[in-house]
Amino acid sequence: MTALLIEAREEIWPLKEIFRISRGSRTEAQVVVVTVSDGKHTGRGEGVPIKRYNQNIASVLAQIESVKRVPNLDRHLVQKLLPTGAARNGLDCALWDLEAKRSGKRTWELANLPLVDQVETSFTISLDTPEKMAASARGYGAPGPLKLKLGGDDVDLMPLRVSPTRSAPRQTQHFGRSA
After folding, report:
1. Are 109 and 54 spatial neighbours (Cβ–Cβ below 8 Å)?
2. What is the pLDDT of residues 142-158, one digit of tens each?
3. How far apart (Å, rounded) are the C-alpha atoms in residues 45 and 72?
4. Could you give the count of Cα atoms lying within 13 Å of 67 in the half-sphere of its Cβ?
């Protein structure tokens, strides 16, 4: 088997709009981009460190560095060597992509999954005023669940003010003040 060249680096991806949750706001995503090359083909993947899971850019890069020189590294071995998280996700995606490019098949074919004509995804509506959240919900034209971030003291009525905008299921998370 050809030795793999694994590279990982941080990229900053600006967000279209400010994203607010109870723990704060952000205007960009810090992403670890992973490439895996056999000299002929290159696979690409990425992972976003999640602070509440004690992940950060440095820890993700260190985890990837720790397995870079493992002989015969493949996506099955990565599952055993790395814990669930951004490092494993980025490297796993890059290895799937590399395998697909080597074989000339699509990833879903390699995974023996049926081709589907639609994939349902959910959208998270950032914490904001009910009016701005409703406008944001209307902006997602594709069907699918909405995840609403709710906060403050007047949250009992917020889902009612947002819900008429869509018929899709929604999940709410309330981050109110304690009494």
Report:
1. no
2. 667 877 776 665 555 45
3. 19
4. 25
Using 70 as the pLDDT threshold, list the residues of the chain that sit under it: 1-2, 141-143, 150-179
- The DSSP bridge partners found for residue 31 are 11
Tell me, letter by letter, the H, E, C secondary structure of 20-72.
EECCEEEEEEEEEEEEEECCCCEEEEEECCCHHHCCCHHHHHHHHHHHCCCCC
Residues 66 and 58 sit within 8 Å (Cβ to Cβ): no
At 139 the pLDDT is 79
DSSP string of 95-118, one letter each residue: HHHHHHHHHT--HHHHTT----S-
pLDDT confidence of residue 13: 96
Q: How far apart are CA 179 and CA 176, in angstroms?
A: 9
Amino acid at 153: D
Please give the pLDDT value at position 179: 32
Q: Token pair of 157, please?
A: 């009525």
What is the spatial distance between Cα 96 and Cα 163, in angstroms, rounded to a whole number? 39
Q: How many CA atoms lie within 13 A of 167 on its CB side?
A: 0
